[in-house]
Specification:
Layout: H1 8-12, E1 19-21, E2 25-32, H2 35-47, H3 59-72, E3 82-90, H4 91-97, E4 104-107, E5 118-120, E6 129-133, E7 136-140, H5 144-170, H6 175-178, E8 187-195, H7 196-206, H8 220-236, H9 238-246
Parallel strand pairs: 1-5
Antiparallel strand pairs: 2-3, 3-8, 4-8, 6-7
Length: 252
């Protein structure tokens, strides 16, 4: 009997060509966040329920309070605002991101869905060569030959791995088993929700900045995520962000 267009066997054998990216994506899903959240949360200690009225007071006074809290590292008032991001990045970036246990995460599952053949490969803007030693090193650009070798090697491995993944799925092997052959350069997506204090901690560790009191040396790919999160954070909480930068990018 001839199979119809919706036959599961036909769907399972559709081969997909691998795609390669050099970017990451960060999208703001929702935010309940503003500098006023910091103000009323801080002033409840002295004004009680009337602290909510403080958000309408002199903006310069509010900015001064935020600077004081940041400088003195009184962190809890910064926990009353929330951001939810949708992040698209290679799996190895998520493994670093999820070390920040102050966020809440939900990631797409290779147990329940067929993973797309989308893989990360560095472009010429990604420095390839490490100089120095761990804790005191920097990266410099690679040669044309090094970029060529890197791209060709990654693309070859990813194509081979995804072909094996498809072969197992077509043979009836469970997704949760077949995914074991896929590399950590495979793109995944997740929702990450955190408050302003968590975000500042993330930025202090995952961004390299000459203004930082404590220098950080993040892997470039997670820094690309941090750069986009920083732009969103700065737009929603400009007074808090300015105080964060003025205080050496040290999270309160």
């Amino acid at each position: 009997m001839q199979a119809g267009a919706g036959d599961p066997a036909i769907v399972a054998t559709v081969s997909m060509d691998p795609r390669f990216r050099s970017d990451v994506g960060v999208e703001l899903v929702k935010a309940s966040a503003g500098d006023s959240d910091v103000v009323w949360a801080a002033r409840v200690s002295t004004a009680g329920e009337a602290s909510i009225e403080a958000v309408h007071e002199d903006p310069e006074r509010s900015a001064g309070l935020i600077r004081y809290l940041m400088r003195s590292r009184h962190g809890s008032p910064f926990e009353h605002s929330t951001f939810t991001f949708r992040v698209s990045a290679p799996i190895f970036v998520f493994r670093e991101f999820m070390r920040h246990r102050t966020f809440s995460y939900n990631e797409e599952s290779g147990r329940y869905r067929r993973l797309e053949p989308v893989f990360y490969v560095p472009d010429e803007n990604r420095h390839l060569v490490q100089e120095g030693k761990a804790g005191a090193y920097n990266f410099v650009p690679g040669s044309a030959e090094q970029y060529k070798i890197t791209r060709e090697a990654i693309e070859h491995v990813c194509r081979t791995a995804y072909a094996a993944y498809e072969e197992m799925l077509e043979a009836g092997v469970a997704r949760e088993v077949a995914r074991a052959v896929l590399p950590v350069s495979t793109y995944s997506s997740m929702y990450a929700t955190g408050n302003a204090r968590a975000i500042m901690n993330f930025l202090s560790l995952r961004m390299s900045s000459p203004d930082a009191t404590f220098p950080s040396f993040p892997q470039r790919e997670i820094e690309m995520v941090a750069e986009q999160i920083e732009q969103i954070f700065a737009a929603h909480m400009p007074l808090t962000y300015a105080s964060f930068c003025a205080c050496g990018r040290v999270a309160p």
